[in-house]
Amino acid sequence: MSRVLIAGESWISQSTHIKGVDSFTTSTYVTGVEPLRRALESRGHQVVHLPAHLVPGQFPGDAGELSAYDVVVLSDIGANSLQLAPEVFEQGRPGADRIAALRGWVGDGGGLLMVGGYLSFTGFEGKAAYRNTALHEVLPVELLPEDDRVELPAGGSPSVLATGHPALGGVTGAWPSLLGYNRVRPRPGAEVLATLGDDPLVAVAEYGSGRSAVFTSDCSPHWAPTAFCEEWDGYAQVFGGLVEWLSR
Description:
The chain is built from eight helices and 14 strands. By secondary structure, it is α/β, with parallel strands linked by helices. It has one domain (3-11, 28-246): Class I glutamine amidotransferase (GATase) domain (Rossmann fold).
């Protein structure tokens, strides 16, 4: 059993309703973590979810806090949310360099998985911004300097290059189509296990005494349709395999 922290995979949406000369707004809180949480828990892993709005104030700040986990998953949560704790952003006081702490923790034996989304890798309009951080060197891929999203509204079929790799959890057969991903480039020395088109979908690498991995599409809609994240038995095998490989 691995202890897994999933940071991100939640959001707040606000709508404006205009009726003649009057208008009002409504807000909803949404989580996208449940398919991933269920998949990992079905394989016996202990999962803690840190929603996106709590990341700035509560993400682990040093190796001691990170040691409570075997694997950290960053999913659709930008670098600013990790870097800008309230005391730094709102009060102008020095705080913990949490991305540097995460890099050091991986180098000392931790496992890091980044899952794709509009605020992963470089992200929508470059706002995820991991390319400019110390975490970039930890990833098994190199990030683009511009908006890296590739939308596939008609669907794209993954190609598996390393079926027998343990990080894929023993999954066999064709994978369901995906509706988009973040474009990245493989880093020298990394293993690309699956692709979408000519780009990495799943890649893994060693980093110091630890390991890192990426899944460049999403773990929930819209890029991961229900046929992928709810109806496909291989979903739990792939993400379970990644977590188990990362935690050795």
